[in-house]
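Many introductory courses stop at the sequence. We go one step further.
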Amino acid sequence: MDKSPDNATKLLAHTALLLAISLALTSLEHMLPPLPFAPPGVRLGLSNIVTMYALFFMGRGRAVILAVLKSLFVFLMRGVTAGILSLAGGLTSLGIMIALALIFRKEISYLLLSIAGAITHNFAQIAAGSLIMETNLLSIYWPVLLISGIILGSVMGTILRVIMPTFGKIFGHREFHL
């Protein structure tokens, strides 16, 4: 990758734009009513599309930066517990997607990575919530979060696949960078 000042400026602007999109999607999602027929706390995870895009086309470092900054935003807007849950879910889901992508290289689809990330995100949040509340009672919610992770991970992976050509035209990314 070119380390010129022009390229560094473009990378910073690109990252800032993706963070703004991610934060807007996070805010929008929390203004929407709960999903019909969804259990309490289950959300779409729209901003995860941006994080996955960053992971696949900007690299691990930028995706981690976006996840951490998004969690900081959640912390500032909704409090310590929400920030911790966001950070635990975001970093753990990124970790599993990175690991699977490195193990399977280009033989694994965005859809499967998205599903694995969604499921892991949910489980990490339940684990963090259980630690914060000092109880194992939240673990009874795991089956619900497994099913919602599969369904919503599929939806977010599909949306990413559909919008990737548009993001590629806007940002000029066409190759996988993981």
